[in-house]
Amino acid sequence: MSKSLTKNQILVLDTLKAAPKPQTAYSLLEQLKEHGLKAPPQIYRALGKLLALGLIHKLESINSFVACQHSDCAHQIAGFVICDGCDQVSEIIDDNLELQIHSVAKTAGLVPKKSTMEIYGLCRSCKGSEA
Amino acid sequence: MSKSLTKNQILVLDTLKAAPKPQTAYSLLEQLKEHGLKAPPQIYRALGKLLALGLIHKLESINSFVACQHSDCAHQIAGFVICDGCDQVSEIIDDNLELQIHSVAKTAGLVPKKSTMEIYGLCRSCKGSEA
DNA sequence: GCATTTACGTTATAATATAACACTTCGGTG
DNA sequence: CACCGAAGTGTTATATTATAACGTAAATGC
Predict the structure, then answer these.
(1) If you ran DSSP here, which 8-state letter would residue B109 be given?
(2) Which of A89, B35, B58, B62 has the least CB density, counted as fewest CB within 10 Å?
């Protein structure tokens, strides 16, 4: 039987799902103060669990978190495409890319367990409105 | 005329080149105290410049820095393979992977400017000595 | 029921990174 | 050469991100 989430975990997950862009732990804390959360560990513990369950992802390069865009993300190997202008994030699952990553890792003599890939640039609409 | 590096920049770069594994800003600071460096900004400024010059890279997922393994790394798109056991890092430049990344970004409607890719696992020798 | 694990709330602190200020050094360029 | 501006320096202080440690409480498994 798969365990259900706890109150704090649900609060954090729902906030991330509703957010238009990646959130830091402290911005989540700020938003959840009105729900009674008061200290960083409460956020970080929930985030830790949600990460382990594959329900959210961490964007390492900006110390921020996003809800997984796939209903049940067992994928340990995903890529993220982030717009420098509007912070919109797309989560990319691509078999081809996954194969490629495995092949790169193998070249280095390593069996991949976990990976992170983050690509930054300008999306179409932000590119249009550039100076 | 290409400008030469300053004293602090050289100290940081040399320390990174000599290091067997990725170093954090504060571990660099610790090592460079004997050379007169005293405060974080001195390190972070040198790191920032070296990053901009492509002489070093930052591993975002572990807040650490490594010297570029290619003599003159103009490549903005590199991948890193890191062993969880011994922290050894290989920097991978692979045209195929680069193409793949561009293609993934394009799918999301974005022109890639910068990217980071970090793959974790166990290298051959660490895999051998596992419990 | 009772033991074990997992989560909770809280206080304190560690680790990573930057702001801001006054001063210096170095390359141009008039 | 003399001046200017850009880039670098050293320093203090502080912001941001993350975890340690403690005792309590709830839930899970047998």
Answers:
(1) T
(2) B35
